[in-house]
Write a structure and sequence with these properties.
257 residues, Rossmann fold, 23% strand, binds S-adenosylmethionine
């Protein structure tokens, strides 16, 4: 029986590892740094994004930082050569200066990103780069699925609970251009071909649905909640003729110098 958790579940998260890794591969391939000495991966999770950085820059000193003990434990067990730190990026002081401050799919969980980016900017080497991918979740039907179910009185979710903190692409440009001389931004829709609606539910269970499920004390309520989410997923993402379901996932990338 599943129990509600306020920490991340690395195994469930990695179940859709291929889908989650491609944006890191794409972002890392566009970073124009020959041999950075020091790299930090903010919100490194189980180390999947960090492994791509290690592959691209084998000689670099790499640190993975995450505030989830379960994720850092999994990263430590991964065997990826890196230093692992449990810390909240919003409040942590970052030791020293970095050539690359990287983050894949993590800033959306952090409040005060404008202040955070400003702090991170001050921790960059003079020719350093800040690179990130943030899902533009609010531009996806899945966001409506979650927010419309969240306001149903039967769940009694507190206002604002669990909502991801994501700016618009214009707001990210404004924040970054106030801090950096050069900002590249782009958006990609990754069209995940899912075997079923249940698979979409399962993929979301380990991320966007997690804060809502964690508020439901009883297994019975969690099942009922997921049943309603599943119905909404079915309406928003009709199955194709072969039974597969297309789940386009929109992601914003930036590289700031
Ligand atoms: C969706 S996962 C991304 C993991 C990995 N970077 C990847 O590419 O798949 C988001 C990660 O951000 C972490 N996170 C959320 N808020 C954080 C914070 N304030 N400080 C540090 N890490 C945070 C979570 O614990 C989680 O591991």
């Amino acid at each position: 029986m599943r129990t509600p958790s306020t920490d991340w579940n690395p195994s469930l998260y990695l179940k859709y590892g291929r889908e989650r890794l491609q944006p890191t591969v794409d972002l890392a391939s566009r970073i124009d740094l020959e041999a950075p000495n020091r790299i930090i991966d903010i919100g490194c999770g189980p180390g999947n994004s960090t492994s791509v950085l290690r592959g691209r820059w084998p000689e670099a000193e790499i640190t993975g930082l995450d505030n989830s003990p379960a994720m850092i434990e999994r990263a430590r067990q991964s065997g990826i050569e890196a230093d692992w730190i449990i810390a909240d990026a919003s409040t942590a002081q970052f030791p020293g200066e970095w050539d690359l401050i990287f983050s894949n799919a993590a800033y959306q969980w952090m409040a005060g990103q404008s202040e955070l980016f400003s702090k991170l900017r001050s921790n960059l080497m003079p020719n350093g780069i800040m690179a990130a991918q943030i899902p533009l979740f609010r531009e996806m039907p899945m966001s409506g699925v979650i927010s419309e179910e969240a306001i149903q009185p039967r769940w009694n979710f507190g206002a604002g609970n669990g909502h991801l903190m994501i700016h618009s692409r214009e707001e990210y440009y404004d924040i970054l251009s106030g801090l950096f001389e050069h900002v590249d931004l782009w958006v990609t829709d990754y069209i995940h071909v899912m075997p079923s609606h249940e698979a979409i539910l399962e993929m979301m269970r380990s991320t966007a649905l997690m804060p809502f499920l964690a508020q439901l004390e009883f297994e019975e309520d969690r099942r009922a909640y997921e049943k309603e989410i599943l119905k909404r997923i079915g309406r928003e993402y009709p199955a194709r003729g072969n039974g597969k379901v297309l789940f386009p996932f929109r992601r914003l990338f930036f590289i700031a110098k």
